[in-house]
Amino acid sequence: MRDVSIIGIGQTKVGEHWEKSLRDLAIESLWAAMADAGVEEADVLYVGNMLGGQFVGQEHLGTLIADFAGLRGTEAFRIEAACCSGAAALRQGYLAVASGLHDIVAVTGVEKITDALGCITAVGLAMAADGDYEASQGLSLVAVHALLMRRYMHEYGATNADFAMFAVNAHRNAVGNPYAMFRRPISKDAFEKARMVADPINLLDSAPVADGAATLVLCPAERAREFNGQPIRVAASAVATDSIALHDRRDLLFLESAYLSAQRAYQQARVSPDDIDVFELHDAFTVMSALSLEACGFAKRGEGFKLAQNGDISLEGPIPICTMGGLKARGNPVGATGVYQVVEVVEQLRGQAGPNQVKGPRLGMAQNIGGSGGTAITHILEAMD
Amino acid sequence: MDMPRHWRLNEQRYNLVGTECPACGAKLFPPRPICPDCNCKEVQPFRFSGQGEVYSYSTVFQAPSGYEEFVPYTVALVRLKEGPLVTAQLTDMDNDEARVGMKVEMVTRKLREYGEDGVIVYGYKFRKPVADYLETEVD
Ligand SMILES: [Zn+2]
To answer: Can you give the residue range of the structural domain that contains B122?
Structure first.
């Protein structure tokens, strides 16, 4: 296996892009990443996307995007793993380069949400859960996570307000990210007064789904210096699964997929949680931030929410999370989110995170989660000297 | 969703039929072709009693398309007496009555309709045990 480097990044602003189609967004980010790397062609294009078929009525996305981006003839196809489709596409890109089969691989995550109506959006997102035994009972993906959060609060004695600082931290960080959807801070008070969506999850517990695309360009580490920019090494790439439905989990309040993929990543990179300088976690709902911190070894069980309260997760803290706004405030372009997370870790490791720059990070981790924890994909990146 | 898809789930939706593992004794709902605990493939159908208690719950204010007529409604993870959790709506009670640990029993109710000419889908929901209602009336 060969070492793999990221040599180019590109992203669109996350939000409601009425004037741009799915293919427009994908091409904008793909061209930005290729320009960043200084490459004119790619051997392969992998597209991470969850809902193109449902929301835009378009499948066959690899070919569509390759064709319209000027890469006709290139090997290209779409990869789907619900909300972690983006990281799944990166995983495939990593394997393609590491295996020695391909040299220049583009990985694009793209989602076009806002063409669909709100109630239809909920149906589409609920497809990340078990259709026969969760969604058919009237559960949205929000309701699935509400069941998690209620039980968490019940077992650990936490209140809704105890989760506020996850959202406050994300919004504070989004102010400094020009690509973020909500570039404004929110107060703890606003969080506590937010409207309930599925009790105990309120509007500010949940990340807004929106349109967006992000792209990474990969190459073998030994060739990384041939291209523009500052290459970042992929120190680990790992995927793990659990049951898709909450009711089938061995332990409801432990994200086994997140645990397993993080452990595999730590082993591959030969590092421990203490070595991680920035962590882009999957804060689709505030309770998921707490559970991810616990599963990945940053907090004991039942204590993940306390890291938000004492400031440990801020840019100056020991484990900064959501450094560019996270899903909560950068926005959650579902199938693209995993690629955005890695783009942001690259910005941090390159020292290009502007006002949000964490001081001298060497190792960054990104973890993208599908559904309520059915799949978790963890990547660890390392700055190269 | 079409007719056959719902028809295939009749045993689960009306009778709460899951599987039992003869090797390790695990009782599973929904049914599976292989035991996730010991990988035994000789699993047998098992009909659950429908008795259980609320393990977690949430009142939904923004419903997915097809469920708007019930809003607000309460969904729950119910811990069945025999062991597994099942995801279902709570019914025949006020939304603010739901509590973790509350005893419930399965009933058959309308899950949703598919428009004027479409099918009406029925399935399991959970309510407070009828014995509790009778007690309340006597008081
Ligand atoms: Zn068994």
So the answer is: 50-139
B110 and B124 part of one domain: yes
Q: Do B89 and A252 touch (CB under 8 A)?
A: no
Do B13 and B27 form a contact (C-beta atoms < 8 A)? no
Q: Which residues of A touch B29 (CB under 8 A)?
A: 247
For ligand 1, the distance from its centroid to the CA atom of residue B27, given in whole angstroms, is: 8
With contacts defined as CB-CB under 8 Å, which chain A residues touch B112?
138
ipTM value of the model? 0.95
| CA of B82 relative to ligand 1 center, distance in Å | 15
Regarding pTM above 0.95, the answer is yes
Residues B93 and B106 in one domain: yes
CA of B20 relative to ligand 1 center, distance in Å: 8
Closest CA to A210 of A119, A43, A332, A106: A332
Task: Give the residue from A37, A1, A51, A36 showing the smallest Cα distance to A224.
Answer: A37
> A284-294 pLDDT, tens per residue?
999 999 999 99
Domain boundary among B27, B47, B67: B47
Same domain, B76 and B88: yes
Mark residue A98 as left, alpha or beta (left: phi above 0; alpha: psi -120 to 50; beta: remaining).
alpha
pLDDT digits 0-9 by tens, A232-254: 999 999 999 999 999 999 999 99
